[in-house]
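Q: My labmate handed me this sequence with no annotations at all. I'd like to see what the chain might look like in three dimensions before we decide whether it's worth expressing. Could you predict it?
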Amino acid sequence: MSFVHSYGFKYLKNLIIGIGAALIMVGALFKIESWPYASEFLIAGLLTEAFIFLFLGLIGPEKDYYWEKLYPGLDKVGGDLQHMRGDGANLDINTERMEGQLEGMLGELKVMSGSMNSLKALQEVDFSGTSEQVKKMSDFYANLNEAMGNINDSIEDTRIYKEQLGALNKNLGSLNSVYGNILSAMGNIGNK
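A: Here is what I predict for the chain of 192 residues:
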């Protein structure tokens, strides 16, 4: 009986059911169109389906759900079903954990609600003057670039001016020294 509950058997069963149904449909099509071998297809398909239905009736239904894991004793006739009556004595539910999960979900729902309100507000925004604002920003950016270029030129001019002032200062120092020598020579001429 373990083969009956295996995946391979279930696959084979579904394959045979599908082939039988296909044979019946093809046989019906052949019969409607009055083509040859219509009766043979119908007979083969119906016999396959009859065999499958007989076999499925003999092996019994498959167990789909495992409710006895949630409610022990459910699969036993006359079993102890006391915990199913609502006293909750045998139910192991972590209410703190459940409350925490519910609070977390509630928080996420609040965040989603805020996001939806933001999207709604964005939907209601009037973007009709946006192109003019973009043009103004573009003009501002061009003027800013021009000003930055002028500042760079001013910095270069300031550097050159500083170098020229340094050279002038040296020349004045030399001139001062020459003037001092002339004064001292004139003082020597006047003392003699």
